[in-house]
Amino acid sequence: MVRSGGRAMTRFKLVCERVAETARLMVGVPDYKTYVAHREAMHPGKEIMSYEAFFRERQEARYAVSKGRLRGCC
Amino acid sequence: MTLTNRLIWPAVTILGTVSFGIVALARGEPVNAAWLVVAAVCIYVIAYRFYGLFIANKVFRIDPARPTPAYRHNDGLDYVPTNKYVLFGHHFAAIAGAGPLVGPVLAVQMGYLPGTLWILAGVVFAGAVQDLTVLFLSTRRDGRSLGDMIRGELGPIPGAIAGIGILLICIIVLSVLALVVVMALKGSPWGTFTVACTIPIALLMGVYSRFIRPGRIAEMSAIGVVLLLASLIGGQYVAADPVWGSFFNLTAPTLALIVIGYGFVASVLPIWLLLAPRDYLSTFLKIGTITLLAIGIVVVQPYLQMPSVTRFIDGSGPVWAGSVFPFLFITIACGAVSGWHALIASGTTPKMIENESQLCFIGYGAMLMESFVAIIALIAASSIHPGVYFAMNSAAGIIGTDPAHAAEVISNWGFTVTPDMLTQIAHDVGETTILSRTGGAPTLAVGMASILSGLFGGKWLMGLWYHFAILFEALFILTTVDAGTRVCRFMIQDLAGNVVPAFRATESWANNLIGSALACLLWGYFLYQGVIDPLGGIWTLWPLFGTANQMLAAIALIFCTTVLFKMKRHRYAWVTLIPTVWLVVCTVTAGTQKVLSPNPTIGFLAHAQRFSEAIDAGKVLAPAKSLAEMSRVVFNDYVDASLAGVFATIVLLMVWFGGSACLRALEEPRVSAVEIDGAVRGAGDD
């Protein structure tokens, strides 16, 4: 009983995380944890942006149209 | 097939058929919207399972073992393998906008059935196919953009032609969407105040997320939403105030100039200050409101008061001119098939796909969802009284500005309505008049207000719901206007940079100012033209917008067909060829009729001729008030005719380039499509 309750709790947490992740990606900010994990695994020792720097970088990138990004009109 | 599968699919088919039969065959009495919802959902489910997956597995032979760009270029920023549900949400938020909410509302003048049939058939066989195919092709090419891919597979000249087409559609989209906002806000101090408040709110959010609590999206959005709701409630009192009420009570031309100026400022300012926070606010509000409306329709189950087919099926309608073919098929673009999606499906989404096996869910599935939004908008518009619908969507040049006169004209069309009903509904939603609020947004807002007040709040909250709906539409349309002006600016800089290379430097302030001003001037011209157009602007500009959007879809589908030929998958090329042919026929016919039709309500040249002849005779034709206005009407007609002509020509040129590329590919003994990451896998004939 306790275990299944715990499992439901974990599942609920996962769903919440996914919803938050979706909401952030909708406005162009991908998952920060994934970014950090990627830098640590693939580029060890190299600089990792702080969340604030990461957020700014992504915000600039979302509207940098020269990279061929066009977004919703209809 | 397992036993459950064998039972479920026939059951879904029967349920869908029965619901659709009830919707289509009902005569005389109103149909419950629930049947339409059930029929649509059944069709989507069947289409996804049997057509979408067929295209992915059989036609493209997607390869789940093939690494996607997200893995090959993983940088944690642009290229990130992303959970498929998360990516679905992102993709849906990027494609859904004003289009599926406005087009279906305008199409309701022919009754709910023609629009419904086109939305459903269009999405299954054209729209979702286009989105899926472009997404697939871009995923196989490192997430390159549509323009890049056309240059790569078809050559530089078709690439450049497509580029011009994309710039033109941007300009028309911006002007038409801005026109929708202007038409919704004219003479509405409550709405204007609320929408104006979004600017200081966005600035505050921008400063908050830059300096006070950097990057805290949830916090700043929550603050933004609370302030927005406060301004929504406050707007009621501002509108009632004698001084402030008249300050925010603006005419359409004034609003148009303000919107143009706003577009310029927003494009010039740093993005974190105004553009980005507005974008966050509008994205969350958009998704939230669409969800709320869908729930509202399912729970309230309104009746469709509009007849299934009206007498305006013959093309004599007051909302937009033209018969079912080709004009219905360009009036509803988004929701059935939208060329704009080809730009988005080749944008950020292909860079984040985890596995090719998820292409169908994201590409085909998200488009089905957008089509569902279009069906919801259509239901909302059909659930209000037909007399009210026509009063809101017919221009003042047709029904006049007096409720008694409008009611008489509309009743003569066969939609009995009393002047009292028209004033009562205006009073209910907290406006002075609802006459000639063209552009679709206010109609949808009245529909939403009556559905949502049925769900929550009752009649006394109707005014609040109405202005909430106007706010939600204006907010994300204005976000499109600022983002789109920036896009336009970059495209103009790129284009002009071919002649003056120094103009290309996007960091330069002078270039920024000149480019933004040019972009605003271009779309602002069409916006202002639409605003002073006595036929209400939407009448003239919406068909141009639809033609442009479908032109882009035709270009994208021609490209998709060519690549299927180059992959030696021409056995299945009919999948994209059928929608291509249909869209080419529709856009070219519509473009030609808009230019050459002898009927002055449809053909720009015939209209110009009628006015020119009157000028020569020294007569002033209504709705123009002076000879100078008459000349302006003629000039605008020539501009619009040239645009429609250019759209049709671009489509025909692309047909020629695509057709010859297909023939060359057929003669070629080997696969000639250029995929990134080595050989074209899964290509070749069976």
What does this structure look like?
The complex is a heterodimer of chains A (about 70) and B (about 675). With about 70 residues, chain A is mostly helical. Chain A is built from three helices and no strands. The model of chain A has no long low-confidence stretch (mean pLDDT about 85). Chain B is an all-alpha fold and about 675 residues long. Chain B contains 27 helices and two strands. Chain B has a two-stranded antiparallel ribbon. In chain B, helix 8 packs antiparallel against helix 27. The longest helix of chain B is centred in the C-terminal third of the chain and has 41 residues. The relative contact order of chain B is 0.14. The mean pLDDT of chain B is about 90. The chains are: A mainly alpha (about 70), B mainly alpha (about 675). At the A-B interface, helix 1, helix 2 and helix 3 of A face helix 4, helix 5, helix 13, helix 15 and helix 22 of B.
How would you describe this structure in keywords?
heterodimer, A: 74 residues, mainly alpha, 3 helices, 66% helix, flat, B: 686 residues, two-stranded antiparallel sheet, 27 helices, 1% strand, globular
- Helix content range of chain B: over 70%
Report the strand count of chain A: 0
As laid out across the biggest beta sheet of chain B, the strand order is 1-2
How does the helix and strand content of chain A classify structurally? Answer: mainly alpha
Terminal CA distance of chain A reads: 49 Å
Binned strand content of chain B = under 5%
